[in-house]
Amino acid sequence: MKPEALASAMSVAAITLEDVKGGAMYGVKAVSAEGDLRASAEEAKLLCLLSDGRLLIAPGHGMNPHVLSFCARLDRLGQPYRPLPATFEVIAHLRDIGGGERGPRVDHTKMQVTAKELLTRACNDRASDIHIRVRRNGTEIYFRIHNDLVRVMSHTREYGERLLATLYAAMTTVSDNAYKPNERQDASIGDRDKLPNNLHGVRIATAPTNEGNLMVMRLLYNDAGDDVDLQPLGYSSDHAAMLKVLQDQPIGMNIISGPTGSGKSTTLQRVLTGQLLASKGTLHVITVEDPIEYPIPGAVQTPVTNAPTEDERSRLFSAAISNAMRLDPDTIMIGEVRDRASAQSALRAAMTGHQVWTTVHANNAIAIVDRLVDLGLPLPMVADPSVVTGLISQRLVKVLCPACKQPLLGNERQLPDDVLGRVKRAVGPAIGGVHIAGPGCDRCRGYGTAGRTCIVEVVTPDAQFFEYIRSGQKLLAMEYWLSEQQGATLLDHAIVKVAAGTVDPRMAEKAVGHLTRNTLAPRVDSRYAALESINAH
Fold first, then answer.
1. Does residue 85 contact residue 56 with C-beta atoms inside 8 Å?
2. What are the CA-CA distances from residue 249 to residues 219, 245, 345 (Å)?
3. Helices within 98-252 (DSSP H only)
């Protein structure tokens, strides 16, 4: 429609809220609130397209650039429309309730209550994530509990679309809170009044699918700071002692690796909180996070958010690290080294007299070096024990419910023969302590498991270890770590937990692979199992 025709159509009297209540919008709904015809946040303030083709426009705004842009999009899509003036109250009313369809509709306010109830239910189940899948014929909602996806409810497609729009547009703290179903978006919820009491925040990621849309919400609990001890997380006493040594060093880069959801942020939170408590406030700790995940009392936490593109996010993240170095820190925590720029900034911080803690995605502790080199850092600088002082890797594995777990002996038939053979060879005389998952009980709510525990390996590299790494002899570096430094791999730690009866061997193998011991690693016996059992409980 030409601008002059649009202006002429706007010359009639505007539709008022009284007209709406009198039935002027009966039987129609707002189609500019969702789908391909969704209006942007600025457009939605000025107009509303109804299912019968009426395009309601605020008086005096027929020539507004946002209105003209929306009309041009309708023309390109071949969508017929008939412009009519309507008051701002009418447009806001229809935007909030979705139109005048027969039957009850859910507005943003009511859906916010529903969304908070969903978050509360997930917290009660101690879910780590919520998956909302909007499909062609309905919506499915899943909780990730103890690393497994559990379907918890189903709804209509329209319900799911409104839930996603409400979660993104009405609850997140982002500069552009317009939910765009056809785009990938990231956001977070941080306002305390929008969250259950035991949640610190929620990270949100959305993506279009072949059938509809997917939203995944990572729940960030605020009880991570209740205890600074690493052993309740699953770290052994030896592991905790090694990290204490790293905490006490004034310089050096300490890197924790693991897949998404392996508890890296929780470990960092406890390490830094413990460091601050031990220093009695004499240390200046700065974090650079995207976004801030857990509160660290006493630290200065700086967010890097709302970048419109990945390149811009990378630039801002690197700039934030450089800025943190100029703020007189003793310790810098970098949420994640994800690209060359952030890796270079982290290494520069470690080389200029700061203690640095960060995370990276790598398969194991020694592979962290390969990952840093892959990101563009020179090997001679990475393989320097005065710069990189700690390499840590961790995984999370389910803990057996102590009330209903079953001893392996007497229930061997529940394991496949090959798994049973590997378990017997791995634990040796400690086979009597091995347990497997039971049928579930009231204590574990029928899951057979009660939380998760960390499986860890820690390398504190010295000059000889890095000499092997620099010369390309990773096998010799591994042998040196295991034999001369009494190192223990993720697999070794998993076997200790299996021998102690805290982890089902099948669950351990899902985390670390087949339970086949390295010949250089110490054998597991009843003493190790007893020690792990004490630590676990």
1. yes
2. 32, 7, 20
3. 108-124, 157-169, 237-248
- Rg over alpha carbons for the chain, rounded to the nearest Å, is 28
Tell me the mean pLDDT in the region 403-420: 96
List, for residues 88-142, the tens digit of each pLDDT value: 888 887 876 665 443 334 455 678 888 999 999 999 999 999 999 999 889 999 9
pLDDT, tens only, 154-171: 998 888 998 998 898 888
Q: Are 365 and 461 in contact (CB under 8 A)?
A: no
Residue 451 DSSP symbol: E
Distances (CA, A) of 10 to 24, 46, 72, 80, 155: 17, 13, 17, 16, 40
475 Cβ contact partners less than 8 Å away, ≥ 6 residues apart: none
In Å, how far are 78, 136, 142, 143, 449 from 153, measured between CA atoms?
A: 38, 16, 7, 10, 22
Count other Cβ atoms within 10 Å, centred on residue 489: 24
**Is the pLDDT at 237 greater than 70, yes or no?**
yes
Q: How confident is the model at residue 217 (pLDDT cuts 50, 70, 90)?
A: very high
Q: What is the DSSP code string of 78-142?
A: T---EEEEB-HHHHHHHHHH-B--SS----HHHHHHHHHHHHHHHHHTT-SEEEEEEETTEEEEE
Q: Are strands 331-334 and 355-360 parallel, antiparallel or unpaired?
A: parallel
Residues 6+ apart with CB under 8 A from 274: 228, 229, 247
- The tokens of 66 are what? 């946002």
How far apart, in Å, are the Cα atoms of 99 and each of 34, 86, 216? Answer: 12, 14, 28
Provide the token pair at 131: 């998956």
Dist CA 207 CA 185 (whole Å)? 7
pLDDT of residue 537: 41
> Are the CB atoms for 397 and 490 separated by under 8 Å?
no
Please state the separation of Cα 119 from the chain's center in Å. Answer: 15
Give Cα 220 to chain centroid, integer Å. 8
Rounded CA-CA distance 489/495 in Å is 10
Alpha-carbon gap, residue 502 to 401, rounded angstroms: 8
Residues contacting 481, CB < 8 A, separation 6+: 366, 459, 465, 487
* Identity of the amino acid at 253: M
pLDDT recorded at residue 88: 84
3-state SS, residue 398: strand
